Amino acid sequence: MTAFATELARFVGRFDLASLPPEVVEKARACLLNAYGVALDCHDTPYAPVARAAALAMDGERHESDRKDGATLLGDGRRTSVGGACLANSALFHGRAQEDSCGAAHFGTILAPLLTAMIEAGHAPVSRLLPALVAGYEAGGALEQAFAGATTPGGFRSSAIYGTVAAAAAAARLLDLDEARFAAALSNAASFAGGVLQSFADGTDEWRYQVGLVARNGLVAAELARAGSASAPHAFEGKSGFVKAFARADMDVAALVRAFGRDWAILRTAFKPYPVCAFNQTPVIAALALREQLAGRTPGRARVRMNPYEMGYAGMDSKGPFHSVSGTLMSIPFCIAATLVRGSPTMRMMTTYDDAAVNALVPNIELVPDSAVPTLSAVIEVETQDGARLVRDERMTARDYSYGRAEVSAMIRRIGVEQNVPPHAFDAIERFVEDLPGGRIETIVEAFGALPRANAPQIRLTA
Fold first, then answer.
1. Is the peptide bond before 437 cis (omega within 30 degrees of 0)?
2. Alpha-carbon dihedral of residues 177, 59, 447, 68, nearest 10 degrees?
3. pTM tops 0.85
4. pLDDT lower than 70: segments of the chain
5. What CATH topology corresponds to 278-400?
6. Are 365 and 336 in contact (CB under 8 A)?
7. Which CATH number fits the domain 4-271+402-449, given the four candidates 2.40.160.30, 1.10.530.10, 1.20.1420.30, 1.10.4100.10?
8. Contact 210/196 with Cβ under 8 angstroms?
9. What is the pLDDT of residue 193?
10. For residues 372 and 385, what is the distance between their CA atoms, to the nearest angstrom?
């Protein structure tokens, strides 16, 4: 069997719109629309301004005369290097934690900013955007599905370790590297990957910036390969390679290769209707149904059964006290308590840390890991203060969250009303996605330029 990096390069390096299944191309359009749309809805979160300041401090500002040598800080208007734009724009796309999820990885926050910046800087034509996007999802998604069950409990974040491979694959496909250079880019990414989960447990912000660093490292991996780097052919399956290091496992290269083109990772990609962790989407949906059944009665206690993989994720079992949205959106008890007491989660709810009714219920929510409950499912039992008992068994899969473009459009526009995003900004990104492989990347830059008060965060995200 040929080295995994070569086999993967051979598969994703050949993608074009004519050879990809129509449903894969359409899902890629939905993923791109979701990424841009949620990013527009993130304009008043504070993470992008922090990342912009860091990017400009490191890489400097580029001016109009440097147009072919830089990219726009979306929603800001200034320009910097492509790598700097990746760092800043990924933080913007990740601002609500409402991006897409491929397993536990959020590839949309990595790939859309990376490819947008590269195309704007003139590295490739816009016609390669969709094939490069699919290449990224497939490269990262194949590894995530195979090994996240081992790497996540080990403390590694899927977006960080698999996202680096995804970013390198997307950049390599956009640059149209040949098979050998493509494989070198993937091997470089295996060496550049890394990122831990502790910030979720501590309620801090490192995870907001990981995705931008991942995009930047993927770009570096591809550019080094293009320049002629000598890269380990067995970077993934070797005894000191990616899989041994992160998953502490052996790699069945043949089995992974057999799945190429049969189990499309992008088709497993799910979207988030609420600004909470992907693993909290179904608990929130179950809690909303229970809230209807409560009919005004006050919940006193609750017991939640979920899959141990999800319940064991960093920050999921936290009961506070909460001081940041990084803590609340991860916490199963907080998300359920807030939903039972106040209804559908909004950013305002998730950033209200002193709600007495919510905080009184949080300690009374018991978490029970149960391997009989599938992932993306939850069983919630609520006892009311007057002695009633209500149960909701919510079984969902990624398919339930795999929205089409019409559903994505409705969702991002619904959030846009809350966030005061001009409707014509959504019109522009929808037109751009529809027109691919034609169109102009400047349409995206202009859509973000229409955002209100882009540099003035309005949401209180820490106590």
1. yes
2. -50
3. yes
4. 1, 64-68, 453-463
5. 60s Ribosomal Protein L30; Chain: A; (3.30.1330)
6. yes
7. 1.10.4100.10
8. no
9. 98
10. 29
